[in-house]
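Good day; I would like, with your permission, to put a structural problem before you. What I wish to show you is a protein chain and, alongside it, a tokenised description of its three-dimensional fold. Here, with my thanks, is the record as I have it:
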Amino acid sequence: MSWIQIHKSRNYAALLMLMSTSFCLNATAQTQQFSTASSALYGSVTRTVMGPAPTTTSIAPIASSITQLSGTNDSPLSTASQTIYGVAVYNLSTIDDATLAADTALNDYGTAFASIGTGSLLGGLVTWQSSYTPLVCQPNAVNPIGQVDCNSTAVIANLKINGVAIPAGTYPAGTAFPITGSIPDTSCAAGADAFTGYLITQESQTTGLGTGQVNLSISGLHLVGQGTCEFQGVILFSTTSFDLHLLTAGSNIGGTTNLVVNTTGNLTLANI
């Protein structure tokens, strides 16, 4: 078991204890409802060949976990991998996605976890040893009826881009690391694509603010970019666009009109 997996299991237990006791003082005021979801990865890959129209392959959420309003759901998966248009898009191991929610006078919260052990993207252009993204949402302590606080602090060990380790430290949500390198492509006559893109950390999307139904989603890592089958700068055959969301956690929050949701989070990188 990696140190991040141990960290996750301890946090999981601690959060269960926290959620069971957090709101006793405000028991009569809890009116929010939480439905949570998490997955290891989802996204799409689009191949554009000279001549025909582009073709897109969608990747459905892997090891998806969903809890609606109350309960728990754990969705482990030992391995997952897929090759699309000649490119090894992802190779993941030791996946464990979990969700929890409660909607009672004593317990009112929504929590989602997404974790992956050793993994790689684009034939090894991006690699890591272990990773973990939680999302914890609960009514605000001061204004529990009209405001919800959500926090997500991701932890990733030994993140490398093109074989180079990203320096350890804490990075704010939305930090974008540039990616350049070669990715193996069996459909390209040159045997590989030249790739350029970005790896964005802790990217969040929120819809419905100010209404009675807010959707919040977090991607611990979001890879976007394009691989080009070329030789000496000349396009030989195709371009392939990648849009991959990893370590995703989300919460649908409802129950109060004019709902305000505050989101905080960051990414901690550790080299071990």
About this structure: The helical segments are 3-21. Confidence is low (pLDDT under 50) at residues 1-29. The CA atoms of residues 101 and 110 lie 4 Å apart.
